[in-house]
Every structure is written in C-alpha cells, then in structure tokens.
Amino acid sequence: MAHEHERGRQKATAISVEPANTGRADFYSRHRARIRGTLTFLWVMLLWEAMARYGVRDERLLAPFSKVITALVNLFLSGEIWQHLSVSGYEFALGFLLASLAGVTVGFLMGTVRIVRDYLDPWISGLYSAPLVALAPFFIMFFGVGVASKAALVFSVVVFPVVVNTFAGVYSVDPGMIEVARSFNASRLQILFKVLIPSSLSYIVTGLRLGVGRGLTGVVVAEFFFANAGLGFLVALAGQTFNTPLLFAGILVFAVAGVALIGGLKRLEKKLAPWRTLEEE
Length: 281
Description:
CATH superfamily of the largest domain: MetI-like
Order of helices and strands: HHHHHHHHHHH
Oligomer: single chain
Number of domains: 2
Radius of gyration: 26 Å
CATH architecture of the largest domain: Orthogonal Bundle
Largest sheet: none
C-alpha cells in the first residue's frame, strides 16, 4: 500500500514538473529572436565598455558606453532631446510617408503596365544606385532651409527601394493565379486587391524596411548642412566640439528609432498577411 502511494506521488510530481518545463520551452520558442537580440546587445555593450576603458583609453575616439548612457539620460532629464526628436521625426515622417505612397503606386504601375515599365525602368535602376544624399545642397537651395528640403531628401532616398521592391513583388506573382481570378470574372480592382497586393506584400514591407534606414540617414545628412535643431544637428554639434558621449548618444537614438520602426513594419506585415511566417519566427 505504501509502495503504491509512493509511486502515485512520484507520478504527480512528474506531471507537475513537465508543464513547467513545457511552458519555459514555449516561452523561449515564442521570444527566441528577442532573447538572442537582447543577449547580443548586452555582449556588444560590455565589449564596448571594456575596449573604451582598457583598450583605447581616449574618450575623444571611443567613449565608454556608461558615459554615453549618462549623456542620453541628461538629454532626457533636461528636456533638450524632445525638440530634436520632434524636428527630426516630423521631417522623416513627412518624407517617408510621401515616398511610401509614391513608391508603391509607381511599383504597381511598372509591374502591371508594360509601357510604364519600359519608360521608367532605366531611370529607376540608375537613380536607385546613385548617391542621392549628395543632392542635399541642391534641395536646400531649391526648397529653402526649412522642413521641405529635409523631407525632400528623405523622399528621394526612400522612394526608389520601395519602387524596386514593389515592382519585384508584383512581377513575381504567379500568372496562374491571375488567370484563375480572370476565369471567375474578377475585375481589375479585384485582381489588384485579392491577388497582386497580398502576393507582393512581403516585398513591399521589405522595401519599406530598407527605406527606414536610408530615410534616417537622409535626415542626418540634411541636418548636417543647415539646421538649428534635430538629431542630425545634435550629432554634428557634438562632433565639432569633440563631445564623443553626446555624439554616440545621438547615434544611439537613431539606432533605437530604426529598430522600433522596422519592428513595427514586421508586426504590420504579420497582421496584414498572417499566413506568412516571418523568417525570424
């Protein structure tokens, strides 16, 4: 009797432990990419701190990460960062949204209308590979020193990767799917919204993700030339005064903004196209 009681207790213990282990495994499986990314960030920051304190030992070249964080905290505590964030954020948002709308529209036209593709393809290919950030002085002379010139530069560097990726997505749609839709008397708008857009969505999001990095770089370059506020202005001012912690703090803000925006686009793709499994998941 005692033996049977002991076996029952062991079995109950095993059952209680198994769900706990399964729960931990499920949690790791769901958040594996985030956990690995966080660990990588911590390792890089520790290496950065060690190199700055025991390797380089010259704060003008490489400031310890702890001092960079201190400079960043001081920016937030003083409230100075909010003006720079609002200025750069508005310039980026205006240029990025206009470039996204224009890029997706032109990409779909190139993918569906042959005459448009024949006329625009050489120009898109050439401008996509051109160093358009070099046009910053031209935009400033043409649009002035206000928001318009910065937004125009962001637009110019974002629109072409969006066009190229949207066109690639539309062009890669299986013709058989379009023929099936036509056999059911689907209109052009139905084919567009039911076949072309869902099939090319991942390409469009990829183009937008590429545009985020190029757009943030465009904001920095534009504010380098002429600005009295903005994160690019803050980074340029810190570089001119050899304030390396402040310089890296500004760059860190740009990096965090890029990660957040790209993460948001990934979530948007997952919501709009739940049948697609993202690579990192």
